[in-house]
Amino acid sequence: MTPPSRTRLLVAGVGNIFLADDAFGPEVIRALQTRPLPAEVRVRDFGIRGLDLAYELLDGYDTAVLVDAAPRGHRPGTVSLIEADLPDGTAAGAGPPEAHGMDPATVLALAAHLADGPLPRVLVLACEPQERPRGDEDIMPGLSAPVREAVERAVEALHAMVPALLADPAATPRLGRPEESAPPPTAALPHLAAGAAEDR
Questions:
Q1: What pLDDT band is residue 31 in, cutting at 50, 70 and 90?
Q2: Is residue 120 exposed (0-12), middle (13-18) or buried (19+ Cβ within 10 Å)?
Q3: Could you identify which of 170, 189, 196, 200 might form a hypothetical disulfide with 175, taking C-beta atoms 3.0 to 4.6 angstroms apart as the criterion?
């Protein structure tokens, strides 16, 4: 008898390290180097390589957790867990999405366009940014204080979430210590649904 297949889990940092709080995802992945997740979890910083991440999502994972900065109208540094409303990639006449964007909605649309079958379940561990480049500011390195403090909370959240997801890829992990009680807006992330969102 063939043993049951093991859960495959991806934790992916996304964001631009030169654009202020957009570096949240890469910083969380860097912090995990000193507090590693279980060896069976694939942990990788994708930076702004949206095409690489889209292809990685096609590699047979049960669940993917994207770690990213996302403006959702909360206090800066608030960490939220959002379940993605996955596109099906079958829009009539739709060409391939632009491959150079790194926002989760674009990456998921590209992965859906490339996929032969369903995508894995996708969760987004998002942080409300405080500092984002505006206008002619091309480079703005360094996280704001509230987002830097949120990096460790995100690491703690991942260490709590991952065992639950490895045991049951359909589980709804809890972040604990909710800070927001109002339903979060989703307009900034067009392909993300708030049904499984929790904030801390």
A1: very high
A2: buried
A3: 200
Instruction: Give the N- to C-terminal CA distance of the chain in Å, as an integer.
Output: 44
Residue 82 has pLDDT above 90, yes or no: no
pTM above 0.85, yes or no: no
For the residues 184-196, what does the mean pLDDT come to? 39
Cα distance between residue 147 and residue 131, in whole Å? 9
